[in-house]
Structure formats: C-alpha cells, structure tokens
Amino acid sequence: MSQTEIEIATQPGCWRRAVALAADANAPWRAAMPRPGERVAVVGCGTSWFMAHAYAVLRESAGLGETDAFAASEMPAGRAYDRALALTRSGTTTEVLDLLGRLRGVTPTVAVTADPATPVMGLADAAVVLDFADETSVVQTRFATTELVLLRALLGEDVTGLAAQGESALADPLPNELLETEQFTFLGKGWAYGVAQEAALKMREAAGAWTEAYPVMEYRHGPISVTGPGRVAWWFGDPADLPPGLAEQIAGTGGRLVAAGRDPLADLVLVQRLAAALGVARGLDPDSPRHLTRSVILASAGEN
Question: Three-state SS for 131?
Fold first, then answer.
C-alpha cells in the first residue's frame, strides 16, 4: 500500500478530531477566525485554492458575509477585506508567504497549516495547526479534507456524520469499469464545484489521467461533447439534485453517470482511492507524481 493510500484511509479519524477541535471554545485561534458580517478573502494554491473556493461559497451562502476565494498569486492588490484566511498544508508555499507579508499590518490574517515549524507561523497573525492531519505524500488528501471539515464545523454546520460516510467510501469496492475508464468529467454545484476541481486534480496528479471539472450547469455548454463510451461524468451531490434531463443526456452520449449521493467530501474519498489505484495500474508512483514537489518554493527575484 502506498503512503497516499494510507493517508486516504485515515481521513475519518482526522475528521472526528477536526469536529472536536471546532467545538473547543477556548482554542487560542478562535478569536482570529472570520466573524459574521466580515468581508473575507480566502487564499491558497493548488488543492488549497479549491478548498478555499468551497469554504467561500459555504460561508457566503450561510449569510455570514461576503467571501471571495483566490489563488494566492491572484488576490487583487487594491481590494479591501476585513480579514484574510490562508490555507497552506506545508506552511512554506512562496505565493502564500508573499501575500501574508504584503498584508501584514494592513489586514488581519489567519492561516490553517499542518506544520507549526514553518515560516507561515511568523507571517500570519494567528494560525490553526492541524498537525494530526499532516502528510508525507506529495499528493494532498487528508489535510485538505480535514481543514474543510473544520471550517464547515466552525460555520455551524453539523458535520458529525461525515466520518461514517467517509468510512463507507473507504469500504466500497472500486468498480472495474471505473478502473478502465478513459476520461472523467467531475461536476458540482455551489461549494461542491470546488470539490469537483479537487477531484480532477487528484486524478491528474496521481494517475496522469485526462480529467476536467465544471459547474454542473456549464457542462452542457460544450464540455458534454467529450463524454462518450468508456468515459464518465461524476456528480458530487444528491442524484435528485441533478438538473432535469441531464442524466438522460449523459446516457445518450454512451457515457456513464456516477452519482453516489454521499456528502461531496466523502465522495471525494472514493475519487482519491481511484486516482491512487489508477496510478499504480499505470506504473506511476502516486506518492511522488511527475514534476511535482510537496511544496512549491520559488526562487526570490534576482536569484539565478
């Protein structure tokens, strides 16, 4: 079993710890977290950017304040926010650190990270450390899902049943048809679109697979043309919430619709497992994808 597969399998336990952490009213970082009514920017890179998107939609949908998600390198310089939330597993990602340095003394900042012995601790005004969800694999799985469980709990959502759903996703066998699939298109709505983007990234990273991700209503505006025999359209959400007629249209292409109906985070666990299995089947190392490192640390301007 690869390290990635081990880390995937430990997610339900991490989620339970995140729920307990969110319930700790005396946690030292709580006062630094986004407050109701604040205008908040959420930033990250790669997987953390997709988790930022999911959180931003959830927070704003809950009526807690305008919330925007950005890749850390793309946050507008002249836009004012009451608070910035930075998501960074490694605590060393250059774009995140540069942004926190730029905001220091201007906008209150809080980071969610896995490693307390990293530069992010000195640049953010406060930090939430989820060291129990840290990973050694380059491919990020349990840290990303654990931080989103924590953030959802802090928004007041009841996520106590998520761990059981994650265990269900770990127990389900991977269908042979999925292991033989040529192409995957992941679909989501609202915050689940961020999860769909993360699912596609996992398949690209671990398996080198041809994957795409779209808001579900955009799928018929062109992307459905790639679906056909031997290809999958994967819906993150309740099958009953699929747009009317879409299931029939997917069937008409000859493609396969996957709609497990779990919470999108729990369904993501199944995709993570599939990505790792496909990677191994293709002779790849899911722990160390081609051309990737655990953290992107860029040379400073002027360095050769």
Answer: helix
**CATH classification number, 3-25+32-154, choose in 3.90.660.20, 3.40.50.80, 3.20.20.190, 3.40.50.10490:** 3.40.50.10490
Q: What are phi and psi of 211, to 5 degrees?
A: -135, 150
- Per-domain residue ranges for the chain? 3-25+32-154, 162-281
pLDDT in tens, 84-136: 999 999 999 999 999 999 999 999 999 999 999 999 999 999 999 999 999 98
Question: Is residue 74 within 8 Å of residue 32, measured between CB atoms?
Answer: no
Do residues 266 and 238 make contact, with C-beta atoms less than 8 angstroms apart? no
Radius of gyration of the chain (CA): 19
DSSP 190: T
> What kind and span of H or E run contains 183?
strand 183-188
Beta bridge partners of residue 187, listed in sequence order: 214, 235
First to last CA, the chain: 40
162-281: CATH topology is Rossmann fold (3.40.50)
Write the pLDDT tens digit of every residue in 252-279: 999 999 999 999 999 999 999 999 999 9
Q: Which two tokens mark 290? A: 């081609």
